[in-house]
Amino acid sequence: MSESEVTGVPQARSIARIVTVLAVGLAVFQLWQPLAGFVPAGAMPFEALLGAQPALYFRPTHLCWILCLGFLVNPLGAATWQRALDWLALLAVVWASWQVLDFDYRGIDHLLNGLASVDFAAGLVIVVATLEMARRAVGPVMMWIGIVFILYAAFGNYLPDTLATKGFSFERILRFQIFSNAGLFGAPLGIAAGAVFSFVLFGAFLQVTGAGKFLIDLSFALAGRYRGGPAKASVIASAAMGSISGSAIANTVTTGALTIPMMKKLGYRSHQAAGIEAAASTGGQIMPPIMGAGAFVMAEFTNTPYGDIVWMALVPAVLYFSSVLLYVHLMAVKADFTVAEAGERLAKVMLDGVHFLLPLVLIAALLMQNYSPVLVGTIGCGAIYLVSLLRAGSRANLTSIISGLKSGALMAVSISVSCAVAGIVVGTIGQTGIGLQFTESVVALSDGRLWLALILVAIAALILGMGLPATAAYIVLAVMTGPALQELGLALITAHMIIFWLAQSSNVTPPIALAAFAGAGIAGAGPMRSAVEAFKLANGLFVIPLMMAYTPLLYGVDAGWGDVLWAALLSTAVMVTLAGLLERFWFTRMSGRHALFAAPALPLLLWPDWRSQLAGLALFLLMLLNNWRKSRQVSN
Predict the structure, then answer these.
(1) 51-94: pLDDT as tens digits
(2) Positive or negative CA dihedral for 550, 552, 553, 554?
(3) Which of 173, 215, 374, 500 is deepest in the core (most CB within 10 A)?
C-alpha cells in the first residue's frame, strides 16, 4: 500500500466521523424545531439560538447544513487538491450563510442603493454552491436548468418578443433570489426543509427499526400465495413504502432487491420483473397519506387542507395500483404460472410486527385532522422509536438511532438541493413574468382544447422529468402550466393533481426512465426494454389524469361519493379494456377480431357524455362476457 493510500485511510475515517456529527446534528435540529414552538416565550435559555426559528432564518440555516454535508459526501474527487477545494467551498458556504442570517432585512438601504459588496458576494457563493451541489447530488441537467433561468432573468431582453422580458442586473437577481422568501429560499425549500425532511427521517426510522421489512413481509403474506404472488406482493409493498420514501428510484432499489429475483424465479422475464417493480414504485409517490412529498407541496400551493387532498387522491391511487395488479395477473395467467410457494402465514407476520402499524395509523389520523405535517413527522419518528421498544427483536438502541438520523439527513441532501434550484426557477418566473407568457402560449397552441393542453403538459413533464426529481418537476410545472389548465376550465386542485401525476411519468417513460433503469440493473435486463414494459404497466399515469379532467373522479371538487364512484367505474372499464388490448388477453387469449370489436369501447368511455359512456360501458361488458364464455369453452 502506498504512502498516500495509508494516509488516506485515517482521512476518510475522520471525514466519516464529521459527516456523522453534521448529519445527526441536522436531524436533531430539524426534529427540535416543531417542538420548540410549544415552549412559552422567555422560558428557554438562549432562545434566539435554540428557539423556533422563523422562515427567514430557518431556511438559510437548513440549506447551509445541507450544502456542507453535500460537499463532504459528494466530493469533487479523491485528489488532495480536489478535497481542499471542497473544504474551501464548505467554509465559503458557512461564511455566506452567516452573512445572510446577519442581513438587515428591516433596512431600506439595499432597496435604494443595491446590495453591499459583501452581501452580493455572499449571495453569489450560495447560488453557485447550490447549483454545483445540484450537479453532484442530482445531475448536471438540474444545474443547467437553474443556470438557464438565471441567464434568462439577466438577458431576457435580447430574446424575441414572444419570450422577451425585462433584463435584470445580477445584483437585482441576487437580491430577489437570496434576500427574500420568493426565490431560492422560497416555498419549495421551505417545504423540503419542513414536512418533507421530517417524513424522510420517519422513513429512515422505519428501515432501522425493521418496520420496513415488516411491511414487505406483510405484503408477501397477503398476496404471495396467489398466482403471480411475488409480483403482486411487490405492488402492494411499493404502495406502502413508496408513499413514505419519496423516491421512485430508491423504492425500486429497496424493494426490488427482494422482489425482482422472486419474480424471475416464478417465471416472469427479466424485463417484466424490472417493469413491474418500476411501475409499482413510481405509484408510491401518488399513494396517500404521504404521497412522497407531493401532498404537502400541493396543500401549500393550492391552500387546500391536507386531509382534503388525501381524500381526493385516494380513489385515483387505488385505481392506479389496481391497474398494475391487473397487468401482473394477466401476465401470470397468460403464461400459466404456478401458484407461488407459501410464505410466512399472515397471522405470524402480524404477531411479530403488528406494533409497527401503530405509528402509521397515528400519523394518518393526525394528518387527516390537519395537524402540521412537520409536527406529525416528528411525532411519527418518536412513535416508531417507542413502539420498537415493545419487542426485543425490534428494539432500537443508540447505534440504530444514530444510523436512522444520519441516513435521513443524507437522503435529504438531494431533495433539499433540488427544491432550492426549483426555488430559483419559481423566483425567476415571478420576477420576469414569464409564467403569464407561458400560460398564454399553452392556451394558444392548444386552441382552447383541454385534451391538447393536457398533451402539451405531459410532454413538458417528460422533458423536465429527465433532469428533475418528480417533486421539483411538479413545482416548476405547477407554476408554469397550472394557470393555463385553470384558464381552460379546470378547478385549481384538479389542475394541480393532474400536473402532479404527470410529473411522475418520467420515471417509467422512455427514453429516460430512471426507475425502470434501476430495476433493469437489478434484474439483469435491457434498460430500454424494461422501460417500455414499465411504461405499459404504468399507463394509468396518463389515463387517470385524463379521467380527472373529464369526469368527477376527485372527491370534493363539486363531486360527492356517488359521482366519484361512477367516474371510478368508467376509469376501471377504460383500464381493463386497455389492458386486454395490450396483452391480448382477458380470461383467455383475445383474437384479432375480438380486439377489433373491443377497441371502440375506449373512445366511447372517454367521451364526456353520459350516453356515450353508457354505450362504451355496454360494449365493454359485452366483449368481456364474450371472452369469459370463450375461456369456459376452452377449459371444457
Answers:
(1) 778 888 999 999 999 999 999 999 998 888 999 999 999 999 99
(2) positive
(3) 500
